Amino acid sequence: MPSIRAPATKKTTTLTVAVKCRPLTERERGRDIVRVNNNKDVYERSISSTIAGVIQGLNATVFAYGSTGSGKTYSMVGTQDDPGLMVLSLHTIFDLIKKDNSSDIFEVSCSYLEVYNEVIYDLLEKSAGHLELREDPEQGIVVAGLRCIKVKSADKILELLNSGNSRRKTESTGANETSSRSHAVLEITVTRKQRNKYSNQIIRGKLALVDLAGSERASETNSGGQKLRDGANINRSLLALANCINALRKQQKKGLAYVPYRNSKLTRILKDGLSGNSQTVMIATISPANSQYHHTVNTLKYADRAKEIKTHIQKNIGTIDIHMSDYQRMIDSLQIEVCRLKKELAEKESRLSAKPTEKTVDAELSWLNILSQETSENVQERINLQKALFELEETNLRNRSELQHLDDAIAKQQAIEKDGAVVQALGARRQVVLDNIRDNDELGVNYQKEIEANEKRRCQLQDMIEEAISNNGNKTYLRILSQYRLLKNIGTIDIHMSDYQRMIDSLQIEVCRLKKELAEKESRLSAKPTEKTVDAELSWLNILSQETSENVQERINLQKALFELEETNLRNRSELQHLDDAIAKQQAIEKDGAVVQALGARRQVVLDNIRDNDELGVNYQKEIEANEKRRCQLQDMIEEAISNNGNKTYLRILSQYRLLGMANTELQFEMAMRDQIIYNQREAQRNLWNLLMSLGLDEKQVLELAAKQGIAIEDWTRTPYQGLSDRRHSQNVDCQSITPLSYGPYIGQSYARSSWIFQQNQDFGARSFSLGNWKLPLTFCREEHHNSYYYRSQDHSSSAYLRLRSSEQWVSGRPSSQFGTPDQYPHKLRNSCPQMRTQFPPYGEGCMSTLSFSADFGQQQKEAWTNAMRQPLHEGSLVGTSGSQDSCKGIIMCHGRSTPGLFEYSSLDQGSSLLSSNQVFRNPIPPNHSDVPWLLASYSTSRPTSFSSCGIKSHPS
Ligand SMILES: Nc1ncnc2c1ncn2[C@@H]1O[C@H](COP(=O)(O)OP(=O)(O)OP(=O)(O)O)[C@@H](O)[C@H]1O
C-alpha cells in the first residue's frame, strides 16, 4: 500500500469556530433569548473553502458541538429538503473534481463509524463487531478493520451515508425526539495521482465530518436505565473533549498542560483535528430557548476557548513511499519467496547434480557394460583358443603316434618286401601325418599367440574398468558391480583378497563420513528449537514490556487527568464561594431578583460541573486501580516468562532494565507533578502574603506575630518560599530535600495534592497518635524525589523521624516497609531506601484528624478533636477543638480561597467540637487570642470531607 509522507512546510492556523442557532422548535414554549447579529451561512463562509483544501491534499475536520437537541445532527446530516454539511461537502468534493482541469486521476473513498458507549462500530458494515483504535507512527490514529469504500459519485456516498445513519443509535429523550446516542465520524479521503508531472507522486487529503452526541442532564432527558448509562458515557466523552479543549487553550497560552486525548475514544479520533495536521472547523450549535440558557452559555464558552486552538496544516504531497508495515510485508513475502526459490533451486540443483551422476553412472555403467562385455568376449575367446589349442595338441599327439607306427611298419616291410610297394604306401601316409603335425604345430603357435593377445586385452579391459570406477563417485557400487560382473563373467576367476580388503576399507571410510554428516545434521536440527525458544521468550517478553510501558503511560495519563480534574474543581468551588457571597449581597440589595436568579443559575451550572468532575474522578480512580492490577499481572507474567526459560539471567536483566526505564518515566512524571504542586503552593502563599499586607500588616508585624506564636521564622525564610523577603520564585525547590507542607505560616496554602499523599497513609494517624510523646510544634514533611513522608519535630528528639510508610518496591516485586531510627535523618532515610517509588493513592477520607496533640490536651479533647476532624466539612463551616480552659483556640483556613473575605477562623469554646461560621474574625490572628495555642488547619475545598493538611501549634510557653 502506498502512503504519503507530508513535506516539511507547515502552516499554523487557528481553529475556525462558527455558531449556529436553530429556530425554536414546536415543543419549546419559551422565550427566544438569542439575537443573531451577523447572520451568514455557515457552510459558505467556513466549510467550502476548507473542503477545497482537501482536493489539494490538506486534511480537514468539521465537528458539531452543542448540547442535546441544539441541532448538531441537523447541521451535519440535515434533511432531504435542507441537506446538512456531510451532504453539501460531498457534492462540493465531486464538483471540484469535475471542474479540475488537470489530467490528474482522483480516487474518493469513505468510511463511516460511530462511537457508542466507548465502543467503535463500522456504520458501513451491517453486523460489524467492535473495532479497535491503533496508533500508527505515520498515519496517526487509525481504526483497525474499518471498511473504506471507493466511490465514484456523490450519490453513491449519500446512499452509504443514509444506510449508515439508519444503523446509528438514536433514542427519543425528554430533550430530543431523535437524540443521537453515539458520536458519528464520516471520513472522506481524496487521493490525487499526478499523472503528468511525477508519475510516482500522489496527494491525499482527508475530510472528517463529526456529529457528536449531545451533552445532557439526566433531569432534562428524563432518562433512566440504559439511556441514563448512555448519557453518562456521552457526557464523559464530551467532558474529555472539553478537557482537551481547555488543555489545548492552556497549552497555547502558557506553553504547558498535558492534553488528555487518551481519556476517550472520541478525543483520540479527534486528536489530529484538534492539534495535528488539520484545518478544523467547530460548529457550535445552540438553541435560542431561554430554558437552554445554561447550555448555550456553556457551548459558547467552549467555542470561545476553541477559537484559540492552533493546528499545523501541511499538504500531504510526496512520493509514493512504502509504509513501514508494507515494507515489512514485502520483506516477509520476499523472504518466503526466497525460501521457496532456494528450496526449489536446491531441489533442481540436487536433480541437476543427481543427473550428471546418474548420467555418469549410466555412462559408466554402459561403458562398464561394454568393458564387461568385451571382457566376457575376451574370456570366451581365450576359452575357445585354449580349447582349439587343446584339440590341436591332441590331434598332433595322435598324428605323432601314427607317425611312430608308420615308421615301425616301413622298417619291417623294407626287410621282408622285395619290390617295396607296401613300403611306398606306408611312406605316403607318413608324409600326410607329418604334414598334419606340422600344420597343427603351426596352428598351435598361432593359437598361442591369440591366447597371449587375449590375455593382453583382458588386462587392458581390467585397467579400463578400474579407470571408469575411479572417475565416478559411486566407486564402491561400481567396483562391486564390476567385480560381480567379472566374477559372474569370469566364473571361476576368483577376486583377489586385496580387492575385498579395498572394498571393505572404502566402505568403512564411507560409513564414517556418512555418520559424521548425520551427526552434524542432527546437531543442527537439535540447535534450532533452542534458538526458537529463546526467540519466542524474547518476543513474548517484548510484548509484555510493551504492554507494561503502555500500562505506565496509561497510568500517567490517568493521574494527569485526575490532577487536572481536581484543579478544575478547585476553581469551580472557589467560583461557587464567590457566587454564594455575591448572591447573599445581591439578595440584600436587589429588588426584582433578576441578578440573583442569574447568579443562581450559574451556581447550578458550577455545581453540576463539580458533580460531573467528582464522578469522573471516581471513575479515573477506578481505572487507576484497574491499571495497577493489570500492572501486577504483567509483572507476574514477566516473572513467569523469565523463570520458564533457561536464559534466566539475561532475560531478568533485560526485563529489569526495561522496567527500570519505565519506572524512570514515572518518576519524571511525578517530579513534573510536584513542580506543578509547588507552583500552586507558591501562588497560594503569595496570595496569603498579599492578603496579610492588604489587611494592613507589614512584614515586621507579621514576623512579630509569628514569633509570638512560636513560629520559627528561619525555618521558612530558608525555604524556597521567601515570603515577604523575596517573593520571586526560587529555582531551588529541593531545600535539603525537605519541603514543608503545612507549618505555621503555611496554613491556608493551596495544597491540592496533599490529599493524595494522605490517602496512602491510612495507618498514619493511629501510629502517630500512639506515640503520644511528640513535642510540638510539629512539621509535616516529605522528602522530595522519594515520596517518603515523616514528621519532623523541632527538637529532633527520639522518634522524631518516623517513616510513615514506604511504598512497595515494584521492581523487585517485594514490598518493604521501614521506620527510621532516631538517627535516620532524611538523607539517611533516602539512602537507606533508594528504590522507593510513589503510588498515588485513591481518593478517600483524609486522616489528618488524629494528627497529634499537645501535651496539655486531655483525652476528652483528643476525642473531641478526632470527632471534629471526622465530621464532614461544608462550605463555610469551621472545625476546631478546644483545649483545657482557655488553653486552646482553633483556626481553620480553606485553601483555594484567595480573597481576604474568604479567610475564616474562629476561637473555640471549651467542649465544642464543630463550630459554625458565626464567629468569624476578619483579622487572621485575633489580638485577644494570640497567647493561646492554635489549631492550624487547611482543607481542600474540592474535597469537603477531608482535610488536606493541618498542623497544631502549642502555646509558646
Ligand atoms: N436549523 C434548524 N432548522 C429547523 N429545525 C432544526 C434545526 N436544527 C435543529 N432542528 C430541529 O431540532 C431538533 C433537534 O435537532 P438535532 O436532532 O439535530 O439535535 P442534536 O444536537 O443532534 O441532538 P442530540 O445531541 O440529542 O442528538 C430536531 O427536531 C431538528 O429537526
Automatic annotation (TrEMBL):
One of its GO terms (cellular component) is microtubule. Pfam families: Kinesin. Keywords: ATP-binding, Coiled coil, Microtubule, Motor protein, Nucleotide-binding. ATP binds at G66, S67, T68, G69, S70, G71, K72, T73. It comes from the Eukaryota. GO terms for molecular function: ATP binding; cytoskeletal motor activity. InterPro entries: Kinesin-like_fam (IPR027640), Kinesin_motor_CS (IPR019821), Kinesin_motor_dom (IPR001752), Kinesin_motor_dom_sf (IPR036961), P-loop_NTPase (IPR027417). SMART domains: KISc. Residues 1-309 form the Kinesin motor domain. Belongs to the TRAFAC class myosin-kinesin ATPase superfamily. Kinesin family. KIN-8 subfamily. This is Kinesin-like protein. It comes from Ilex paraguariensis (yerba mate).
